[in-house]
Amino acid sequence: MTPKGVAIGSAEWMCDPAAGHGFGDHGNARSVYAALSKGVMPPDGAWPQNWLDTYQAWMDAGFLP
């Protein structure tokens, strides 16, 4: 996903607290979650709900690397 500007493998990029992508904080992580939740990412198929729940828990816990 890096060619599309999504550096999901980079903790620095994912944990960046800056606003962006229409979100008031942690814009990178929140936009990735939004895409995952809609099933438009990753291109090889939607994540199962338990993975989305884990991602949501990571955000709720403060986006720690």
Q: What does this 3D model show about the protein?
A:
It is a single chain. With 65 residues, the protein is mainly α. The protein has one domain (2-60). 43% of the residues lie in helices and 0% in strands. It contains three helices and no strands. The protein has helices at 11-14, 27-38, 49-60. Helix 2 runs antiparallel to helix 3 (49-60). The mean pLDDT is 92.
The fraction of residues assigned to DSSP E strands is: under 5%
Described by the principal axes of the CA atoms, the overall outline is: globular
**In DSSP terms, counting alpha (H) and pi (I) runs of 4 or more, how many helices?**
3
The total count of strands amounts to 0
- Average pLDDT rating: 92
Contiguous uncertain segments of 5+ residues: none
**How many separate structural domains?**
1
Nearest-angstrom radius of gyration?
11 Å
Task: Report the structural category.
Answer: mainly alpha
Q: What is the distance, rounded to the nearest whole angstrom, between the alpha carbons of the first and last residues?
A: 19 Å
Along the chain, the helix and strand elements come as HHH
Describe the structure concisely for a colleague.
With 65 residues, the chain is mostly helical. It has helices spanning 11-14, 27-38, 49-60.
Task: Note the main attributes of this structure.
mainly alpha; 43% helix
Write the layout of secondary structure elements.
Layout: H1 11-14, H2 27-38, H3 49-60
Helix pairs in contact: 2-3
